[in-house]
Amino acid sequence: MDGIIPQLSRTDKRRLENQCRRAKEGAEKIRYLIILNLAEGRSAADTAKALKVHRSTVYRVAARFREEGPDGLIDHREENGENKLDDEYLSGLWDVVESSPLDHGWKRPTWTREMLVETMAQQTGVRIHVSTMSVALAKIGARRGRPKPIVESPWSKRAKTRRLRELRELLENLPEDEVVVYEDEVDIHLNPKIGLDWMVKGQQKTVLTPGQNKKRYLAGALDATTGELIWVEGDSKNSMLFIQLLWKLHERYADAKKIHVILDNYSIHNTEEVAKSLATDAGQRFQLHFLPPYCPDHNKIERAWQDLHANVTRNHKCSDMLELMKAVRDYLRRRNRKAVRYATAA
Q: Were both Cys, which of 157, 183, 209, 241 would link to 234 (CB 3.0–4.6 Å)?
């Protein structure tokens, strides 16, 4: 249909294309696409068919463009009445999403958009469409993710806070001739850990597993200052593996007056063999600082192990343990080189 919109110059079209790419709302992007299609000489009917909208929508958008120009394509939601997704509504939605549906009387333990609509309607008196709830969730940055299982610490909140404060003060006031490391162990399985990966539509990737699983174990210590990771390997996760790590730290930090080791309450860290090792002259250089039970987020080496799984063991294709352990060592060495460069630059 000739004259449905004014003729656009190449510069005007390019400007509209840029604004279309920057549009965050789907409806606003559609309005830009309508004008761009009409500007290419397509009819209103063809434009409506291509964009899967009603023909009346094409005419309405074109009329607004004729009257207001590009400003007419910007969201005019204020014309629809009061904005329901105001700060108060979004703040309340944040609190609801953080909680469990069970806390609000629902029998289902995970949220659906429909349940969120009903819950927010009960709390605010404002009812929105399910599609608008999708917009609201995007506004608060909500996402569908996998919850992290945790175990409640048996320590009181006061005792837990006191211990974590002591460790923080240790790091802040550390003498130059002392070092602090975070210690933990990690299992290396020949059977790959299965993790998320990108796949094209209609495809499900496969991961070949060797069948009979084999394991190796690392005991590691992350330098709190430099980020370097020192580790030892073993066929068993026991006190001897932990003691081997202590002696490696003893050699690595030969000039340190005191080596502070922050670690969890795993049983291999507190055995008679460990006590005998710490009672020696060399062992007295070590001071163990146990974290409150079930506080893995406060042991910074945990992140290093997560990165190891993400970069090596998850969905791996190693055929035997020798190949897998070589990949583990290569990754940890590369990681240490980066850590040293970063520490030197800082």
A: 241
